[in-house]
UniProtKB/TrEMBL annotation:
Catalytic activity: (R)-pantoate + NADP(+) = 2-dehydropantoate + NADPH + H(+)
Annotated signal peptide: none
Function recorded in the entry: Catalyzes the NADPH-dependent reduction of ketopantoate into pantoic acid.
Protein name as it appears in the record: 2-dehydropantoate 2-reductase
One Gene Ontology term of the molecular function aspect: NADP binding
Segments forming domain Ketopantoate reductase C-terminal: 169-283
Keyword annotations: NADP, Oxidoreductase, Pantothenate biosynthesis
Family stated for the protein in its record: Belongs to the ketopantoate reductase family.
Span of domain Ketopantoate reductase N-terminal: 4-143
Coiled coil segments of this chain: none
Catalytic EC class: oxidoreductase
Organism name: Planococcus halotolerans
Pfam families given in the database record: ApbA (PF02558), ApbA_C (PF08546)
Length: 286
């Protein structure tokens, strides 16, 4: 099976190396040619093992039948969308971003077959050619447009666990709610995921956020029971959330596509989350 992975950050390097290990043919597309050169020379190091994946910053290296997995951040998408409007017109596309604001952005792409992906793995970029697999999980996919049969091969890749979901909105919103609860609190308080449970003040805030979300989205009771939130904090206890990792690295935070999305989707004002939103935006570097 052929893949092109766009973006050689934490998720891009993790996904490309897992697919290569599974015997797939993988073309990694970097933004900077110098990163592609380093990857071609040294491979991708993942937890001490090296996986040789072909990398380039040239989009014409993408085979016409390859699945294109877009593994960049929400804020990087405008450039990618510009490219996709005139190339890779027949390739199936999968967008792997956290959050949900990208769904509107990609609505008018010319490609027929488009899916959303959820990455329930933890990945930390160590260097231009090294990634740490900080949490082993699963990939989830759901159809945004086109023919779902086109994507079913993604569920049968050796050693790469994947699930198909019938309802893209529900799949994505569950993850948004999870990220809305964990990411801002960890980023604001500089806590690891597990400390949201062990720090009594953080735990109180986590419960209050859940209660606030419940008032706006009562379906959360079945979509994402509080026990599932605490179970995830416990199973990723040592993880630095992606929002805290971005803050520590001085990168732009994915606040809008996660937190602002939730605030806007709510039928009522959400004062706790609005406060978190302004605290995070006020501290964000230009
Ligand atoms: N890290 C994690 O554990 C998880 C992340 N996610 C989600 O996955 C998405 C990606 O996250 P993550 O991998 O951590 O982000 P990173 O910031 O580590 O990586 C993003 C990569 O995209 C590259 N990029 C930006 N613009 C382009 C472009 N025009 N062409 C090619 N490459 C480009 C960047 O390149 P450059 O370095 O040159 O700027 C960078 O390598 C996010 O939405 C995140 O929320 C989901 C679950 C877990
Ligand atoms: C679920 C969670 C919070 C795990 O760290 C995550 O997806 C993230 O860090 O963005």
């Amino acid at each position: 099976m052929n893949f092109a992975v766009i973006g050689a950050g934490a998720v891009g390097m993790l996904t490309a190396s897992l697919l290569k290990e599974a015997g797939c043919s993988v073309q990694l597309i970097t933004r900077r040619p110098e990163q592609a050169e380093k990857i071609n020379a040294n491979g991708i190091k993942r937890d001490g093992e090296v996986h040789f994946v072909e990398a380039s910053s040239e989009w014409d290296r993408i085979p016409p039948n390859a699945f294109i997995l877009v593994a960049v951040k929400y804020s990087h998408l405008p450039d990618i969308i510009k490219k996709l409007k005139s190339c890779c017109l027949d390739n199936p596309l999968v967008f792997m971003q956290n959050g949900m604001m990208h769904i509107e952005l990609i609505r008018n792409l010319p490609q027929q077959n488009i899916a959303a992906g959820i990455v329930e793995h933890g990945a930390l970029k160590i260097s231009e050619t090294e990634v740490r697999h900080t949490g082993k999980g699963i990939f989830k996919f759901a159809l945004l447009s086109g023919d779902e049969k086109r994507f079913l091969p993604l569920l049968n890749i050796n050693g790469v666990k994947a699930e198909w979901h019938k309802d893209a909105d529900q799949m994505l919103f569950r993850k948004v709610l999870l990220n809305t609860m964990i990411n801002p609190l960890t980023a604001l308080l500089s806590l690891k995921n597990g400390e949201l449970l062990s720090n009594p003040h953080a735990y109180e805030l986590l419960k209050n956020v859940y209660t606030e979300l419940y008032s706006a989205f009562p379906e959360i009771e079945t979509l994402l029971p509080f026990e599932q939130v605490t179970a995830l904090c416990a199973s990723t206890a040592e993880n630095t959330s992606s929002m805290l990792a971005d803050k520590l690295a001085g990168r732009q935070l994915e606040v809008d596509t996660i937190l602002l999305y939730t605030i806007r989707r709510s039928p009522y004002a959400l004062p706790i989350l609005q406060t978190f939103y302004h605290l995070l935006k006020a501290a964000e570097k230009e």
